[in-house]
Specification:
This protein is mostly helical. It has helices spanning about 10-25, 35-50. Helices cover about 50% and strands about 0% of the residues.
Length: about 70
């Protein structure tokens, strides 16, 4: 399995590549090169998505739900 060197995700096209690679690596054993790569990709994907697609945790809640 060829390792990709994704060090940051700056645009949606980078995100697409990272998600496709994560899909290939999904299910990899922890503490292996593939598992480590998957872990790093997930961190990068989460960072990009939290910056570009923030989720307001209170969104959609009624005052009585809080």
């Amino acid at each position: 399995m060829k390792k990709l060197e994704i060090t940051k995700i700056e645009r949606s096209s980078d995100l697409t590549v990272a998600l496709e690679r994560a899909d290939v690596l999904w299910g990899s054993e922890q503490n292996t090169p593939e598992g480590d790569e998957l872990e790093r990709l997930v961190e990068l994907i989460e960072a990009y998505e939290s910056q570009h697609y923030p989720i307001n945790s209170a969104a959609g809640l009624k005052d009585t739900d809080r």
